[in-house]
Amino acid sequence: MDILSLADVETLARTAHAAQTDKAGRPYAEHLAAVADGVRARGGDPDQIAAAWLHDAVEDHALTEEWLDTAALSPRTKAIVLALTKHPGEPPESYAHRVRTTPGALLVKEADLAHNADPGRLAVLDEYTRTRLTEKYARMRALLGLAG
After folding, report:
1. For residue 37, how far is the Cα from the chain centroid?
2. Helix 105-116 and helix 28-41: axis angle, to 10°?
3. Which residues make Cβ contacts (< 8 Å) with residue 78, sequence separation at least 6?
4. 84: phi then psi, degrees, rounded to nearest 5
5. Who's near 126: CB < 8 A, 6+ residues apart?
6. What is the pLDDT along the chain (148 residues), one digit of tens a residue?
7. Are 49 and 40 in contact (CB under 8 A)?
8. pTM of the model
9. 62 neighbors 17 (Cβ within 8 angstroms)
10. Which of 53, 70, 41 is nearest to 14 (CA)?
């Protein structure tokens, strides 16, 4: 089976998330593109860049786990996407452990957190939400062993 190209993965992710917006009302695909760019800038490989495009697809119900299982993606990309998929009620410590122990996942999560915590992105949110998210992202960075 041929693996989907990064361009195909990007198109697929943009289509799957087309109806979704982020907390500021921006098209969700902007976040996906920023995470993919962040992975690329951090020296990520094609498996990690593909996972960046798809990192929220299963969690946000844009695509199913069954789809992912049969998708023309590398086993490593699939493993990273599954590692980054939070489960309802899952303790942050369990999630962080899975991310840390799945090869390639930590770099993708680092890029995700960097974009989520971007001051310009947070500035458009109300103070309560901005404070809550800033604390949440800092805690996850600490659980993942990421500096600062």
Report:
1. 12
2. 130
3. 68, 69, 71
4. -85, -5
5. none
6. 699 999 999 999 999 999 999 888 889 999 999 999 999 999 999 999 999 999 999 998 999 999 999 999 999 999 999 999 999 999 999 999 999 999 999 999 999 999 999 998 899 999 999 999 999 999 999 999 997 6
7. yes
8. 0.94
9. yes
10. 53
